[in-house]
Each structure stands twice: as C-alpha cells, then as structure tokens.
Amino acid sequence: MAKVTVDGIEVEVPNGSSVLQACEAAGKEIPRFCYHERLSVAGNCRMCLVEVEKAPKPVASCAFPVNDGMKVFTDTPVVRQARRNVMEFLLINHPLDCPICDQGGECDLQDQAYAYGADSSRYGEAKRAVKDKDIGPLIKTVMTRCIQCTRCVRFSAEVAGTPELGGTNRGENMEIGTYVEKALTSELSGNLIDICPVGALTSRPYAYVSRPWELKKTESIDVLDAVGANIRVDARGPEVLRIIPRINDAVNEEWMADRGRFSFDGLKRRRLDRPWVRKDGKLVAATWPEAFAAIATKFSALPGDRIGAVAGALADAESTLALKDLMAAYGSANLDCRDDGAAIDASRPEFYRFNTTIAGIDEADALLIIGSDPRKEAPVLNARIRKRWTQGKFPVGYVGPRGLDLTYPAQHLGETLAALEGSAFLETLKAAQKPMLILGRGALQRPDGAAVLAAAWKIAVETGMLTAEWNGFNLLHLFGGQVGGLELGFLPGAGGKDLNAMLAGGVDALWLLNADGFDPARIPASTFVIYQGHHGDAMAARADVILPGAAYTEKDATWVNTEGRAQRGLLAIFPPGEAKEDWRIIRAFSEGVGKTLPYSDASAIRLRLAQASPVFARVGEVVRAGIADTTGPAGDAGAVNTMPFVLPIPVYHQADVVSRASDVMAQCAAIYGPAPALAAE
C-alpha cells in the first residue's frame, strides 16, 4: 500500500494505483472524458490534470502511478487554468447543437464545461465537420461531436470482443468509425451509448423523442435473458421510451444486452389488452366475468388429474406461485415450468443453478462449455468470461457447432459429448485449481436431455470441479422466468404429468402462463386452452380463453436469475386496456370459483414466496458455496446419443415474444439475418 496526500488528506491505496484513483479515495472529484473504470487507460483527453509535488508540469492523473509519500494538489490556480485550456481545445470543433442533441441534459461535456471551463472562447474560426457513419439500426452517429476519447474503440475491443471501431487519420483529421462501413455485430453495442461522454453516439430508436428530465425513472430487472441485468426503465405517460442499465458488480457490472435494451417498442405492439373467449370457433372480445365463467364451467366438469398448467420463460415468481396454489386447490399435480421441454432435474438446486455465480467467473482458471453459445444466450455473462480470459491463464474449450465466435479463443472439442472421451482438455481441467463447466439449457431440450445433464455432472465430478470449497457446475438458462419456477417446484407432483404427457392428451384443460416455448400445434384439438400472457403470439391464437397479463415493465414482480439470485422489478407503466398483473388475475379467478388463495396483496404473496423457497427470503443476494454431496442427477450418463448439439437461439434479436413484436428487433434480424451455417473445420 502507498500513502498519498491529496489536498492535505492522507489516503492509502494499493501499489500501482493511479493518481486519479488516489484522488477519488480522498473524496476529490476529478473531471475526465477518456478514462473509464472498466477500460484500459488511454490518457488522451488530458482533462484530469492535477499538480504533483516536484513535477515540472501538471500530470494526467489517470495515467500517472502513485508513489509512497506523494503529494497531490487538485485545485490550484495552475490546475484550474490547465483544465480551462483543455476544455477550450475540446470545444474548438465541437458543434453548438446542444438544443437538438439527444445527449443534452446528461452530457459529460456540458457538465464539465460548466464546472471547469472558461466563460468564453478565443476561437472564431470555422469548425470542422465529419461525415456521420452508418453502423446499424441501434446506434445513431453524429461524429462532428466526437472528441476522440476512444472509449468506444476500447469498449468494442476489450469488453465486447468485436474490434470493429478504430481511428483513421491523425490530429485534427482523425475520425472514429468502422474501417469499412458496416453495422456493428456485437450484442453489447448499446453500451457504446452509455460510455460516450458526448453526443457522438446516441440511441437511434430514442432520437428526438424526449429529454431526460421529462422521464419517470423506475428500477427494474431485464428478463429477456437469464442474467438478470439491473436496469432502469424510463417512461413518459403510458409508454416506455428507453431502457438503460444500472450498476451491479455482482451481476451485470454496468453493461446490458442489446435485446433487453432496444426491444421495448415491442411492449406496445401486438398486445393483449382485453379478455377473449372462443365462441363458435372464433375468438370474440369478452368481459372478465365472462372469461372466468368459461374457465370455471370447463374446470367444474373435469377431475383434477385432467387439468394441467404450464409456466413459461417470462412468468414472474408471484404468478407462478399463484398458479401452483390454484392447481393444488383443484387437486391437480400436472405442472411444468419447462415449457421448452428441457430435461432438468430439480431435485437439488445444484442441478439447475449457475453455481459458480457470475462474479465467481473471475476466480475460475479453466472453462468447458457444452451445448451453449453464451454470446447469444447471455451476452453480459459472455463479456464476464472474456474479461477473465483477458487476465490470462484461462483455457476455454467447447462442445457444440463448429466455428462459434465467442469473442475469445476457444478450442473446439467436437460436436458431441463422445468427442470428449480421451480429450487432452479434460486433463487441463483436472490440472486447474477452480475449473468450471457451463451447460446450455438448449442441450437439455433433446430427447436424451436427462442423459446429457447426467453426463455433464459426471464430467464435473471427474475433473475436480465439485469440492467443499468450489462448485464449478453451471446450467445457463435462457430467460428470466425459468429459474423461479424451478425454485418454487412448479413441476409434476405425485402422479402428475409433465409437459410432454400433457401435450400427448394427458389433460383436457391446459392453463398456459406466458408459456410460448413450444409449438402450439402439439396441443390436441380437443384440449381446452387458457392462455394468460401479454402478447398475441402464436400461442394466443390457439387459446379458447385469453387472459391479458402485464409485461415485466408493468408490474411489481420477483425474478430469479440463472445463478439463483432473486431480484425485484418495479412497475414503470400500467398495463394497457383491461390487462392486469398476472397473480392478481389468478387470485381473482380463485375467489370467483370459491377456492380463494390465501393472499390478497403484494406483501402477503411475497411472504408466501419466502416460505416456499429460501431464495425469496434474501432478495438481491446469492450464496456461493462448495458442494459435499456429488451424487448426480437422475439420468443415465451413458445414454447420450451421437446427435450433434444444436443451439436454441438461431436469431438472437427475436428470441422471445417481446422482441418478436419489436420493429427495431425486426430491423436487426433483417440486417444480421439468421445465424449463418457454420463452416466445417
């Protein structure tokens, strides 16, 4: 540790820290444009100048290392004048278009020019102009505003792993862009908007829509993948206008995937905003009492074992619990939350959680990926893996389709698990101190899914991934509602039928709660279907009764991410039309049929959640621990067939009902197209 005195305040900072970090430890604000805590140091904006004792001139604090006994001065006449001069240079060519700039009101350049700049400029020459770059349907560029801080270049290369941005020319003629004009291919490209300190890179869907002070800001959770990124939903009136990430170092750091960020326009399209009942073969608009009466009439004529329920990938924990309790009141054990047919053994949490935890990736020293493409399934988690790879000594191998670009080097071990037999990579895992394995949920959707799960667990045991201090077995889920159902035990009870048995004619009435993970054509024509959800996707067209629910931005709800961390999202806008919060719909129906559920407000149902699983008693936290019992899940590890693994998300931008309703995501899908056929090795 080095002792540094900053403006008379003595602080201790780790050796190798920068002067800027020492100043922040002393509580001093240092202006900056190029410096970012999660990117490499560039030192090219010079806004962070400070005085250091015995130094001949002001130094750039972001790139100057501390020494023991160093004395730093952050607010002297020399420092103030130096910052004014730097700001004057930055503003020489910056256009005076703040009134029409989308960054206005939350622009670092505006704020720092006011706080640290001079009150006038000496330059009267014409400003330069730079041609805007077309880098896709998500990012709007006004490159005349660019101050060449190179944050975007470093983010693309270091965090996203897609080094497509760079600088051409030198000096005043330098321009940032792609060398050959094309759309950015990263699934994390929206983060360029957040890190750009000026208005050079802004959101194209949000262009000229509103000012930040007009927006109501609500904290929530991104459920369009299973990472559970912490987000802020910005709305005006009844409409969501943008979604941006919040900082949570344990989950998403400060990044967010593009699908969750830009698909919000799908929240207002193809929405279910009133109940519907099928009469004479056609769906007709109905009232809530009429819809409930149609369900009650059907249920009253059926024994409990002929009624079933399926909770889908975007179902929140409260509604899943309410539906489970309702089915219990009818005497039905026909439940399943695996609407994609994944063969998940939920008898122990270790079999279906990301046990290493997302933050635990930083400690791992070897990785095996089976049947998964983390870049498409969980882009933020993939960035965490890349971050660990950049630190060195982190071999990665994967079993799956050839030619995957994971944004970091990975050894292709084969297309089937059989290719691992005798593989040298297994010896690499055994030699590692903290090896980890990521099994894709899509790998469990195969007919031999249970065998794949058992085989992956066996590999984890044999390579030393499961110890009293470390659990390296991880199942990577796809959406934010999938783990909550497993935690609540929304699975077949004694004598109950699973999804496949229900779709094979095992039930006469089927309640689908946001369940869109299977082909509706699999439902027998004679089955009475209740669809409860928020979008008129394919499943709604098959329903006999439609109950309009609320999307994730329209309710106070609890979600569980892939590592088993319960998190709460808050209501940002109200559901459209007559749509209601999902658990309240189920509660109202139960009261109407005389099977009233024992909770009538949010606090009561959350108490019931905490009783159902300890996960919901520690919201926002996750317990990482080793494992003592290495007994594997049900399934024959030797029964894995030779079928190659197929990835579950062929088109990243249209993987769920919200993004499929989004015009922005449709543009992205048209530009990027389906995943190309991967070339043979």
From TrEMBL:
Per its record, the protein catalyses: a quinone + NADH + 5 H(+)(in) = a quinol + NAD(+) + 4 H(+)(out)
User: How is the co-factor bound, per the entry?
Assistant: Binds 1 [2Fe-2S] cluster per subunit.
Q: What class of enzyme is it?
A: translocase
Q: Pfam families given for it?
A: Fer2_4, Fer4_NDSU1, Fer4_Nqo3, Molybdopterin, NADH-G_4Fe-4S_3, NADH_dhqG_C
Keyword Ion transport set for record = no
Entry function? NDH-1 shuttles electrons from NADH, via FMN and iron-sulfur (Fe-S) centers, to quinones in the respiratory chain. Couples the redox reaction to proton translocation (for every two electrons transferred, four hydrogen ions are translocated across the cytoplasmic membrane), and thus conserves the redox energy in a proton gradient.
What name does UniProt use for this protein?
NADH-quinone oxidoreductase
Q: Which organism is it from?
A: Neoroseomonas oryzicola
